[in-house]
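Subgroup meeting minutes
Present: P.N., E.W., G.H.
Scribe: E.W.

1. P.N. recapped why we're keeping a running log of single-chain structure predictions: easier to compare across weeks, and new members can see raw inputs and outputs side by side.
2. G.H. added today's entry (193 aa).
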Amino acid sequence: MDDFKLFLELAFRHVLDWNAYDHILFFIVLAVVYSFKDWKRALWLITFFTLGHTITLALSVYEIIRIKTELVEFLILATIFITAFANLITVKKKNFHQSNINQFFALFFGLIHGLGLSTLLKITIEDSETKLLPILYFALGVELAQIVVVALILVGGFIAQDVLKVKRRDWVLILSSIVIGIILPMLFERKFW
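Output recorded in log:
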């Protein structure tokens, strides 16, 4: 039970850490396209991401794959930029919010984010006899923390759109543009070549 609590807390702290806000920025641009009534689709988004990152997290922890940290950090920022940019392009289409592109991004880009999460987990479980349970506990913690983040995004969207009467298109454009403005300088700082 101690391991369960340890890895759950570790995941929560990692996802909700303001010093490592890339995770939060990624979920802002993934979930901003959904309204509060789309909460079920947003939950699938979280699950697809968790599935993707758990696969590469396990492969990395078991040292089946190894990728340089600098490359992974750059790719994580690139996934955030690509998702935000896709929002800017698709928001102009009539039924942009019904697109499954962000669910694809959640799964595929989750594979990249899992490599970033593996560094933290490897350090924590390097002396552990079994690695599978800590990986699963950590994945569950990430899933729960992401639910918190996405719930806050959906509530923020509800307040902006239904209370303050900001158009959905404008809400997506504003948040995606802000995230791009944050990510671009970070991309140039962390280029790996």
